[in-house]
């Protein structure tokens, strides 16, 4: 990971996905960067203190009928250290597109976690590895019957009809109990001070609300 990414990742470790979204809403980025439908499955299911932060390494699966040739090597061998693997799968696919061997290799290469915009498998193996997985759902069958990888490190669309949002290679992905957020690379420097200001205000609000101050009064006092 280059020095710029390393510095940004360390800074983002201080904040939750909600903090990132709050800042992106202020910057008028759609949905505060939230990637709907992606939740934590490993090392635990929606439990624990797991957080992943890193630049996106994107992988694009498409149906076998797509005219583009299959990617010539296995994408998992080229995962950069410190990256979050983001695997894009066409919607409504019953087969899994990611498994335990992928995580074994990704972990060895220094990836911090994987986000699967589709199904994954080998859940217990993922948990035994203590490797973070965020995904839409689980499955059992491998992808080769239906799908192929055609590209890595290309822009990919989130596979949902709820949103129109793109994940670009190198965008920062942040995942925790609240879900997964994409922080566009070109907004990261603007977003950080907004996160800091919001967290400071919310910390003061929480302290005063817990001692009896009304929410509206606290909001006027610390958020305005």
UniProtKB/TrEMBL annotation:
- The organism's superkingdom is given as Eukaryota
**Annotated substrate binding sites:** 99-102, 121
- Tell me the GO molecular function terms: 4-hydroxy-4-methyl-2-oxoglutarate aldolase activity; metal ion binding; oxaloacetate decarboxylase activity
Its recorded name reads: Ribonuclease E inhibitor RraA/Dimethylmenaquinone methyltransferase
Name the UniProt key words of this record, in alphabetical order.
Magnesium, Metal-binding
Q: Please list the residues that bind Mg(2+).
A: 122
Identify the PANTHER family for this entry. 4-HYDROXY-4-METHYL-2-OXOGLUTARATE ALDOLASE (PTHR33254:SF28), 4-HYDROXY-4-METHYL-2-OXOGLUTARATE ALDOLASE 3-RELATED (PTHR33254)
Q: Which Pfam families match?
A: RraA-like
Asked if the keyword Magnesium belongs to this entry, the reply reads yes
Write down the CDD domains for this protein, in alphabetical order.
RraA_family
Q: Which cofactor does it need?
A: Mg(2+)
The species is Diplogelasinospora grovesii
